[in-house]
Amino acid sequence: MVREPRQERSRTTRRRLLEAAVECIVELGWTGTTVALIAERAGVSRGAAQHHFPTREDMVSGAVEYLAEVQIAELRSRASELPAGSARTQSIVDMLLNLYSGRMFRAALHVWVAASTDENLRATLAPLEARVGREAHRVAVELLGVNESDAGARETVQATLDLARGLGLANLLSDDTKRRAQIARQWARLLEPTLPAVQKNGTPGVTIPS
Amino acid sequence: MVREPRQERSRTTRRRLLEAAVECIVELGWTGTTVALIAERAGVSRGAAQHHFPTREDMVSGAVEYLAEVQIAELRSRASELPAGSARTQSIVDMLLNLYSGRMFRAALHVWVAASTDENLRATLAPLEARVGREAHRVAVELLGVNESDAGARETVQATLDLARGLGLANLLSDDTKRRAQIARQWARLLEPTLPAVQKNGTPGVTIPS
């Protein structure tokens, strides 16, 4: 019976390190972030930190992946609570266009930009970036209810996520919430006619509480 | 008659320093870039470099501004050569969505991300970023021929530029040219019905060589 709590403790330590890594990157940037500093913030010994993540690259790719998972899980859970009807498209567009306005994207941005001048970091991040991007795309396709075999549907979803990343960037140096909400309204208006009818009426099988 | 060449020489030195600053930032990142290194690359003495740009912040904001000006001038000049007719919208969308796929955006991205954890740099860049953003918006409004008093027109133009920045980001770690072209095709299709008829037929007063 010793094994379970130890595994549990190990998972908690790992999660604390990843959270601390994101905090450090957002506050200090990539060059200011070290394994020692992350360990200190997480309240974990440097040895334990290095056991989980031998290098700064390991820790940072772990953090990017962890945050992407958390965020996508949150997106799915919030999406399941959405009403059907005409407000649905707007709610989904709002959720998608807000996806990159928080600290997760901020941390990822630091790391991506550092990777553009650091070959080792790029090699670590490139496959991860592709996987995280595919997962975001899959969730957006589900939420918008599009059929990817329809002409242009795939590109519309991609454009929505690229726009979301552009809006994340616009939110980096100043609070862009108000402008982003206005763009989201217009984006929903532009998308609406291209979405299949099923989306507008909610996902089939979803029952709305009366 | 001594005055003119000296001013000319000074302008040339300034331009060489700004070009070297961009090169340095793109290759080495913000933290790797120093005034000494930029001066060396530009083949300018450190004293002369410091005469033009007392601090690294001055030089970098000069570089961001210079590149934005060059890019917008190029956009205008290319736009004046565009044909009228249905291919026009696609050509303009292509130009706008390619706007941030080059080294100018790459350099700006390094600096913006650095500014997110550096208050002095942020104070220098924030007003510049706003000015450059407004200018890009103005050119996009002209090119697309929209009337900003039409409902949603302003947001459509903003979304186009935010999408372009998101696409610039997607081009940071790998060559995204092909995917970007497909998104541009779909975006032109979505925009077309929202644009005033005048746009589709070219800017009034533009004569097409026969």
Total number of helical segments of chain A? Answer: 10
The quaternary state of the protein chains shown equals: homodimer
How many strand units of chain A? 0
Strand content of chain A: under 5%
Note the main sheet of chain A.
none
The separation of the N and C termini of chain A measures 47 Å
Biggest interface pair, counts: A-B, 47 and 46 residues
Describe the global form of chain A. Answer: elongated
How large is the radius of gyration of chain A?
A: 20 Å
The run of helices and strands of chain A is HHHHHHHHHH
Helicity level of chain A, as a percent range? over 70%
Q: Mean pLDDT of chain A, nearest integer?
A: 87
Which structural class fits the helix and strand makeup of chain A?
mainly alpha
Which regions of chain A are unreliable across 5 or more consecutive residues at pLDDT < 50? 199-210
